[in-house]
Amino acid sequence: ILTKAGEHQIIFVDTPGVIESTVGLNPFLTFELEQALKDVDVVVAVVAPWEFKSSTKPWALSVGEQLKSKLIYVATQCDRLDGGEDQMLAQWNLWTSESLTFTSARTKKGLDGLQKKILDNLSEGPQYYDPEQYTIQPLREMASEIVRKHCFELLHQEIPWRFVGIVGQTL
Predict the structure, then answer these.
(1) Which residues contact 105 (CB under 8 A, 6 or more apart)?
(2) Do 75 and 45 form a contact (C-beta atoms < 8 A)?
(3) Where would I find the H helices in 6-132?
(4) Which of 123, 139, 144, 156 has the most CB atoms in a 10 Å sphere around its CB?
């Protein structure tokens, strides 16, 4: 939840990642993603740097073409691009005429422009949450995610989705 008092409130919905598989938990995650995409005003479709190395259209672009929501396409981690933005934009233009926003969380490139694009595409509506609230997650779940984040950083590898931090008591 991003609130700027008296101006706007943006509620971000993070969907599960996409793995094209019919095994295990994947069908449920795909269903959750499809439901989330139906119930939002604006979709920020993220394209990772490595997706530009393939001639195959990125999944986000393929799905985006089927949605009725307003779409903003974003190339993330642009500070890590091989060949630079010009080469990626050339590949992007082979796939579509839609605009593409380049961003980097590390260098903060493009983030203000992305926020402006989101705001420009949102409809007027009520403020749903208190300006001091930035998440709907309970404190224990937030603490668990912080523990998970630190485990990820210390282990230097992907943490399995089933890795769970259990917080017994919060102060």
Answers:
(1) 76, 77, 111
(2) no
(3) 26-38, 59-64, 84-95, 111-121
(4) 144
What is the per-residue burial (b if ≥16 Cβ within 10 Å, else e) of 84-118?
A: eeeebeeebeebeeeebbbbbeeeebbeeebeebb
The predicted pLDDT at position 102 comes to: 92
Closest CA to 64 of 37, 91, 93: 37
Are 76 and 46 contacting, i.e. CB atoms less than 8 angstroms apart?
yes
Query: Which token pair is 62?
Result: 């393929």
Q: For residues 161 and 157, give the distance between their C-alpha atoms in angstroms, rounded to a whole number.
A: 12
Tokens of 28: 């449920």
